[in-house]
Amino acid sequence: MKLPVDGGQNHRRYFPFKQWKHWQEVAALLVGYDFVAACVSYFLALLLRFDMDFAQIPARYLDTCLYSILPYALCSVVVFWLLHLYGSIWRFASFVELAQILLANGITMVVQVGWTILFFGVKMPISYYVWGALFQLGFTVSIRFSYRILTLGRKRFKKNAVQCEPIMLVGAGSAGQMILRDTHQGGGDETDAGASRVVCIIDDDPNTWGRFIEGVPVAGGRDTIPANVVKYGIRKIFIAIPSASVSDKKEILDICMETGCKVKQLPGIYQLLQQNVTVGSMRDVSMEDLLGRPPIRVDLDNVFRFLRGKTILVTGGGGSIGSELCRQIAGHQPGKLIIFDVYENNAYALQLELLEKYPELDLVVLIGSVRDSRKLRALFSEYRPDVVYHAAAHKHVPLMEDSPCEAVKNNAIGTYKTAYAAMLYGCERFVLISTDKAVNPTNVMGASKRLCEMIIQSFDAEIKAGRAANLPQLFTHDSAADHDLPDFADAFRQAHTEYVAVRFGNVLGSNGSVVPIFKEQIEKGGPVKVTHPDIIRYFMTIPEAVSLVLLAGTYADGGEIFVLDLGSPVKIDTLARNLIRLSGYKPDVDIKIEYTGLRPGEKLYEEMLMKEEGLRKTDNNLIFISRPIQFETERFFRQLRTLMDAAYENVDGEEIRRLLMEAVSTYHPADRPS
User: Is 365 in the same domain as 466?
Assistant: First the structure.
């Protein structure tokens, strides 16, 4: 046969056996092996029955064995094939494969008994059937599991031949056993120093202490972690207890981090349910794991049903909270999503991200400031948003202490202008992103955010009372033309916007959060700068914050301030030390901690409620609604106009603080350093 001239590319069609994969070649060899093993097994059983003396075997037994053995061997191969014994990956063989082999040999034994009795009319000795089945089982198991045994032995030999990094495994349950098995199979974490191996296991069940799992000792409970770290020279600790309570996990993490070892853990129970627990699924411990409370779980199905098909505006959409709001909203079929931000770089990056992930999303990205009332009017007039999430704000406490006029302009007046445009153009819901620093504020930023809360409460009260027309137009430009807008009077009569605020604490990983600042300082080798050893803060994650914001938009009746139960506050000093330990260093040894003193306007602690406020529950046990503090709205609006005029005249900071104290009765400025 003449092959085509193609460089040999098509020769495989003429020689199909060349296309066999490696596993198919192994399967073919196993077929031949099993055929021979079946023949040998029962012939050996017959010899054994007669003391290995071939001459003593009766002719009828010998003839039956010889004539039945080939058909039986062929039948065995067919049974093995049907039970997938030729398609398994034997280097991963486990109890499942062993059970399949036992089943296959049980079936073939029955076939052998039936074959000799029904077709040959000879009942062979019982020992013939028993020993024949046992020989065949031994041959079948040995060839298949020998590969796995040799593979594991070779890997263990290699690990023993190099300097291994010892690992402590916390958790002797199902997840821990999967991690242990994965390391034994060579899935251990590889480092520059060589392979890693588990040398001891920690579990709180006393029944496991002093016993072994795959040759590894269970050394004791969580209290013995420090001692066993020293005893076994541990460098890494793997925590594999996905079903443990949050408090137990935090206690174990605290103990582990005190040892100075690198700590990794399973993300959650999902991997265990999916049988997907490997060393590769371990992750570094994050600050979220050290909050000391379970993550806030919010059912957002109703929220996304409410938002579906609506036009959603997110001001400050390029920021930490704003961008996460946009991500979650974008994935749940809004009619239109509008991102409004003054900083173009973040907005552009978010635009590219969302359009790549959701190509069908109707996305509008606009650059502009909430301080520009004419830009806001144009935006609301063209797009008529149904829901507004107002995240635009100046948030850095020290910067606002130095630029109090900007805090008033952007935070307070910017909120007022956005809220006014929302009312004028028929928005359904307006959700303000507030902060715990608005409670009994001691700094300009907190006072300006309390002003924002008072603004949305005033808007809600005036609209519900049918006095929307009494809301002053606080503009810094000639507003005479604004009153000529068509249907301006009708907009006041038909005003129905519901205004709410969402108040939460510090957001881990957000812009300006202490966590990224501390991480950057650690990367530079320190020192890590903490303002005060006793300063405490409430913390939450970005997803938790966004969940609360979204939920507030559906709970709203108008005028509420939603508050999240954040559990116990965290000492910033403790947080800094934990971050240092998580980075593999020792606080005050490898990385120094430096106390710099409280910054202007900074409090030792934050509060979520003022004394005058009460709480009522929502459907979610971790989300509460504060009862709004009553104040005279007309007087407040006059004070707000005075503040706006002073801010745009750029008066000195002390005058702004004095005016803020008049408008916000709970504002008491902290002593400023001289």
Answer: yes
The pLDDT, as a whole number, for residue 602 is: 67
Question: Is there a single domain that holds both residue 556 and residue 439?
Answer: yes
Establish if 77 belongs to a structural domain: yes
Q: How many domains does the chain have?
A: 3
By CB atoms closer than 10 A (0-12, 13-18, 19+), residue 274 is: exposed
CA 634 to CA 249: how far, in whole Å? 53
DSSP 591-646: B-EEE--PPTT--SS--SS-TT--EEE-SSTTEEEEPPPP--HHHHHHHHHHHHHH
Domain residues for the domain of 167 are 163-285
List the structure tokens of 291. Answer: 């909050």
Q: Is 564 exposed, middle or buried (0-12, 13-18, 19+ CB in 10 A)?
A: buried
Q: How is residue 651 annotated by DSSP?
A: -
Is residue 566 very low, low, confident or very high in pLDDT (cuts 50, 70, 90)?
A: low
pTM for this entry: 0.65
How far is residue 74's CA from residue 501's CA, in Å, rounded to a whole number?
78
Distance (Å, rounded) from C-alpha 88 to C-alpha 104? 14
Angstrom distance (rounded) from CA 663 to CA 86: 82
Rounded to an integer, what distance in angstroms lies between the CA atom of residue 601 and that of residue 665? 16
Q: Are residues 134 and 213 in the same domain?
A: no
CA 247, 253, 254 angle in degrees (round to 5)? 90
Most confident of 16-25, 107-116, 389-398, 527-536: 389-398
Q: HSE, CB side, 13 Å, CA atoms: give it for residue 268.
A: 4
Task: Please indicate, yes or no, if residue 531 is contained in any of the structural domains.
Answer: no
- Is the pLDDT confidence value at 597 over 80? yes
Residue 337 reports pLDDT greater than 50: yes
Please identify which residue in the block is written with the tokens 């602690």. 605
d(CA 73, CA 42): 10
654 assigned to some structural domain: yes
pLDDT in tens, 430-463: 999 998 888 888 899 999 999 999 999 999 989 9
Of 335, 409, 443, the residue nearest 651 (C-alpha): 409
Q: What percent of the chain has pLDDT over 70?
A: 77
Q: With 60 as the cut, is the pLDDT of residue 344 above it?
A: yes
Is the torsion defined by CA of 77, 79, 81, 85 positive or negative? negative
Supply the CATH number for residue 335's domain.
3.40.50.720
* pLDDT tens digit sequence for 623-659: 778 776 778 888 999 999 999 999 999 999 899 999 9
What does the pLDDT read at residue 8?
A: 44
Q: How far apart are CA 641 and CA 659, in angstroms?
A: 11
One DSSP character per residue, 223-258 reads GGHHHHHHHHT--EEEE--TTS-HHHHHHHHHHHHH
Q: What is the pLDDT of residue 189?
A: 47
